[in-house]
Amino acid sequence: MKIYKICFSPTGGTEKVAGFIAGKLGSDIVNIDLTDRKADFKGVALNGDDVAVIAVPSYGGRVPAPAAERITQISGNGARAVIVCVYGNRAYEDTLAELQDCAEKAGFSIVAAVAAIAEHSIVRRYAANRPDQDDYTALNKYAEQIAAKLNSNDSATPAIPGNRPYKKAGSVGFVPRPTAQCTSCGLCASRCPVGAISTDNPAKVDKKACISCMRCAAICPHSARKVNRLLLSAANIMLKKVCSKRKECELYI
């Protein structure tokens, strides 16, 4: 049995959660990076005895569109799956429901779902330094419960929260731009999950293609990509009420 870690994690928060859960379920781990826009996901095929940990961040209560598209290209072939959504302490709304539908369309059998918290990718003061020790303690307990279910050959799908139809997907509109510290190294362009940054001139960004994932800002070696300060300040004020109170991880099994 192999553990397939199928993960869309532009800034690393979702990867932390997915990697932890996958590592607790087995040691033979196959990594599938959903942020790699050049990867051949149609060539990824699991066996029925494999287990997948399919993890995405919640963007406005939805699965990021490129992640949804790429997941459905994979051939699950009846493999059991744990679906995971990670959010920045606001809400995950319809993310798990949509992720369930994507995974089942790809041929996976959902046996558990986890909602976890990581540092907000845009306004990083919210859920800062999460997942923390309390989160990992909870995730460890969840992994033990999931492993027990897998070992018992129980393939029942749990009740997973969310609405169908899903909430309307909206555009966040936060497009990081290069500052004077930019050296035009091209790292941001090469690793943008949707190819929104020009490889010839990193200052050029396709606003319609950009999904505000913050990958470019997170990986820049010179911290030279920033979001407009006024927009960031407005987002901070808007999120203060809904993000200030700590939310906890959840398991559906």
Task: Give a description of the structure.
The protein is α/β, with parallel strands linked by helices and 253 residues long. The strands form 2 sheets. The chain has a 6-stranded mixed beta sheet, with helices on both faces. A two-stranded antiparallel ribbon has the order 6-7. It has helices spanning 13-25, 65-71, 95-105, 133-151, 187-191, 215-219, 229-243; strands at residues 3-7, 29-33, 51-57, 80-87, 109-117, 177-178, 225-226, 250-252. The two termini are 21 Å apart. The chain is globular. Strand 3, helix 2 and strand 4 form a beta-alpha-beta unit. The chain folds into 2 domains: 3-165, 3-Layer(aba) Sandwich (Rossmann fold); 177-226, Alpha-Beta Plaits (2-Layer Sandwich). The model has no long low-confidence stretch (mean pLDDT 96).
How is the secondary structure organized here?
Elements: E1 3-7, H1 13-25, E2 29-33, E3 51-57, H2 65-71, E4 80-87, H3 95-105, E5 109-117, H4 133-151, E6 177-178, H5 187-191, H6 215-219, E7 225-226, H7 229-243, E8 250-252
Parallel strand pairs: 1-2, 1-3, 3-4, 4-5
Antiparallel strand pairs: 5-8, 6-7
Helix pairs in contact: 1-4
What's this entry about, in short?
It contains 7 helices and 8 strands; from the N terminus they run βαββαβαβαβααβαβ. The chain has helices at residues 13-25, 65-71, 95-105, 133-151, 187-191, 215-219, 229-243, and strands at residues 3-7, 29-33, 51-57, 80-87, 109-117, 177-178, 225-226, 250-252.
